[in-house]
Amino acid sequence: MITRRAFALVLASLLATAAPAAETRGPVTNLPMPRYVSLKASEGNARRGPSLSHRIDWVFRHRDTPLRITAEFGHWRRVEDRDGMGGWVHYSLLSGVRTVVVTAAMAEMRLKPAPAAPVMARAEAGVIARLDACEADWCRIVAGGQRGWVEKTALWGVDPDELRD
Question: Which has fewest Cβ within 10 Å: 19, 45, 153, 155?
Answer without folding.
Answer: 19
